[in-house]
Amino acid sequence: MSEILRLEKVSKAFGGVTAVNEVSFALEEGEIVGLIGPNGAGKTTLVNLITGVHPLSGGRVVFAGQDVSRQKPYEAARRGLARTFQIVQPFPEMTVVENVAAGALFGGGLRTRQAASEEARRELAFVGLDHVADTPAASLTLPNRKRLELAKSLAMRPKVLLLDEVNAGLNAAEIDGALELIRKIAKRGITIVIIEHLMKVVLSISQRILVLHHGELIAGGPPREVLEDERVIEAYLGAKFAARIKAEGMHA
Amino acid sequence: MTSGLLGRLPAGALGYALCALWIALLAASPLTGDNYLVRIAVMISMFSAMALSWNFIGGFTGYPSFSTAAFFGLGCYVGAIAQRNGLPLFAAWALATLFVAAFAALLGLIILRLKGHYFAIGSIAIVEVTRLLVSSWGSVTGGGDGLNVPLMQGSPGAVAAQVLYAMLGVLLVAFAATLAVQRGRLGFGLRCIHQNEDAADMVGVDTTRFKIAAYTLSALFCGTVGAIYASWVGYIDPTDSFSILLTIKVPVMALLGGPGTAIGPVLGAGVFVLLEEFFWANFLQWNRAILGGIIVFLIFFLPGGLLKIDYRRFYRRAAERRAAGKAAA
Ligand SMILES: Nc1ncnc2c1ncn2[C@@H]1O[C@H](COP(=O)(O)OP(=O)(O)OP(=O)(O)O)[C@@H](O)[C@H]1O
Ligand SMILES: [Mg+2]
Fold first, then answer.
1. The whole model's pTM is what?
2. B303 CA to chain A: closest CA distance, Å?
3. Is residue B218 in a domain?
4. If phi over 0 gives left and psi between -120 and 50 gives alpha, with beta otherwise, what is residue A18?
């Protein structure tokens, strides 16, 4: 395995508020990494920094050996840094297949709209949305909209995929389906960062967990270690919860 | 059998056929020898070309631009000044086109950072700023006194026909450009920007470049039209060239016909100019009020424009009524 993405002391201040403070970590190719932290910890901001939505206040982002700290979002997309939005962002008046074709044409670098459409249909089959390919995106149910976001990102042929709460608002059965899909995506060799509030979900899928609190990275490592980390328990999990989830996790 | 011809032909093909017929009619107007008719045909072609231009930024991209009069006015002045300095007619028109395109591209870099209402206000301010610049740079532009433009050669009828064909030429090029954009990568990207600019950025659309391309396309044909107009009327002044009324009329035409389509702006411009002529002739004082009325009507009843009305339904209803009438008889 080799390194695909590295953050070096990445910081972001909005006016006086430091949303992300000197965060450093590296991702290996093909990893699934969970990013957790309380509301307002800076998780979404971190995704925005990695994908060029906000300019960095300090530090560096290195992608595949190249300094990309000053990139624009569309450049991140073309390089292979894809993300989904916490609040889904479809092109509402286009069909589902057109939505995905946009990803293939602009982010994936396909030449023609025809080729982009074909690629889009393949990705829709992969995420299980081929049966609604020709309906307007606005008519999809929430779980399907989340799948659409995934298909759109996949059509961009990403190397790294940042998933900002793709499971939020889904019920238990739908989450199981989504997790299965995320594992299938990881099998394609795509590095995945998953932001998620449900600890069970994070623990079941992540090989490694990063914990953000008040914009700082307070822990990082295998799930078991992170669960035992004093600071993580104090800041995020709470002692009771940590004990319970550990007990459940150990039996599983 | 209820939907007849409309049902069997793809709506697109029928639309294009009617559009071609309409343009042929405009082109045939000099055959009547009626100068008033030719003048109306010129106005229709000219506004169709400008409505098609506006459609690139306002229709496809969804940026409510009110800069049309700035582009038209600059086209008038660059064309006129070039001709006064001895450039041949076509070279002057070409220069005006290039100048206005370059102006829009540079301006786009700044103004397209604004969104929504802010963009609308910024774009309308440009009309005022360019008008002020032109009227205060008296040594070149003649200031408030305006400029005489060398007259075109030929009888009034021949000149009107030449102007008509020039305007129709611009109309056709703008129409072809619209179809090319609509079917290509640029048009797809503009639609993405229209529906969700952040998401467009995120799927890899270089939104800044795409918007500048759309804004430039919305300008350059207006530049050509302005220069042709200046040669036609033979005299221009700042108030007439940079008219706020023009800057509002053109978007209204595109909205009336159907923004974001190729045929809509042509339809809207035609309907609008004809309505305006009719009201102008019959109710002189009410002319402005009627423009306002159309705008209000558009906003409340026709958000998709005339093209989006379900004509097939009307047609079916009429057929059903006819059938019911026969059955009763
Ligand atoms: N564009 C912005 N302008 C100003 N402040 C911002 C902006 N974006 C985020 N913040 C602030 O940065 C901090 C981190 O927010 P962020 O959305 O990254 O948190 P989060 O970890 O994603 O939270 P959640 O779990 O609720 O999604 C918050 O205090 C937020 O108010
Ligand atoms: Mg968030």
1. 0.88
2. 15
3. yes
4. beta
